[in-house]
Write a structure and sequence with these properties.
D-Maltodextrin-Binding Protein, domain 2, 11 strands, 10 helices, Arc Repressor Mutant, subunit A, two-stranded antiparallel sheet, WH-like_DNA-bd_sf
């Protein structure tokens, strides 16, 4: 290693900690412990002979030297990742890696998968799940993500795929017939939530003019688990309407309220610019758009 250069891993840790403003968040992004982040940054500070962070209780901030250093290094790893993805993405033997929530994969993507394979038998795809809207494209080699709502990040391209709506759902016999949104005392203790979309009940209550205590109820790691809980009669979930067509047709779930005001929910295809060069991306994107245009959502 060039003695004039600090360890590359320590630089990467510093950039991530500076970007997120937290050793804990940086540790999560890098899949290490906060202690490992702290040690790595301390070693970099020893190498440089200056402090890069002010360390306070549960909070860190850049020193003057740290801010100058970060401004010089902020985009270096992004450029390395983009250059690498651009090169690797040209290889026809590398699968196109697609990321989405488990509920979208199971309810929307998989039922349509056979149609894609029939027309593109030689295309190699890999599907992975996420439980967060914050997808680490570069660090996890993900080419594109299909997520509800767009990502407000200039590093990524976001293309609208289709719009659906959010509605409260439950087992058909869970609520008395004719229950209205205003009958709050009859149902607000039975809210079901999921970590992947934590603000849905708040959005729904504002749109419907109903003041619900959204801190009440049961929480689940993802929407698929939440829907299963609703089908088991454990309460009322906020559902993405077009992902529940099988549950509605089989009478396992139904709209909870007849006077419900539905909320628009948009799905987008989000990816780094280098994904555009992947040989499998154009055909996959065209297939997605054709599925939507054919009215199969």
């Amino acid at each position: 290693m060039d003695p004039r250069l600090p360890p590359l891993n320590a630089l990467r840790t510093f950039v991530m900690a500076a970007r997120t403003g937290s050793f804990v968040k940086a540790a999560s992004e890098l899949s290490v412990t906060p202690a490992a982040v702290s040690r790595s940054i301390r070693s970099l500070e020893d190498f440089l002979g200056c402090s890069l962070f002010h360390r306070m209780h549960r909070k860190t901030s850049l020193t003057h030297e740290g801010r100058i250093y970060f401004e010089s290094l902020a985009d270096i790893f992004d450029r390395i990742a983009l250059a690498t993805q651009g090169l690797v993405g040209q290889r026809a033997d590398r699968p196109l890696v697609i990321c989405a929530y488990p509920s979208f994969i199971v309810s929307w993507l998989v039922p349509r998968w056979s149609r894609y394979l029939q027309t593109h038998p030689d295309v190699q795809l890999r599907i992975v799940t996420t439980l967060s809207h914050d997808v680490s494209f570069e660090t996890k080699n993900i080419d594109l993500a299909i997520l509800s709502d767009s990502v407000d990040d200039p590093r990524y391209i976001s293309t609208s795929l289709f719009e659906t709506t959010l509605i409260p759902v439950c087992r058909p016999d869970y609520l008395p017939p004719g229950t209205l949104t205003g009958d709050i005392e009859d149902w607000q203790s039975a809210l079901l939530h999921c970590d992947t979309r934590p603000g849905d009940w708040d959005r729904w209550s504002k749109a419907n003019g109903v003041f619900v205590d959204t801190t009440r109820g049961q929480w689940f790691e993802n929407a698929s688990m939440m829907y299963e809980a609703a089908m088991s009669g454990l309460g009322i979930a906020i559902g993405i309407k077009d992902l529940l067509s099988r549950e509605f047709s089989s009478n396992r779930l139904a709209a909870a309220f007849r006077d419900n005001v539905e909320i628009v929910c948009r799905f987008c295809v989000i990816r780094p610019a280098t994904t555009e060069t992947h040989p499998f991306f154009p055909t996959f994107m065209k297939w997605l758009q054709n599925e939507v245009q054919a009215g199969s959502t």
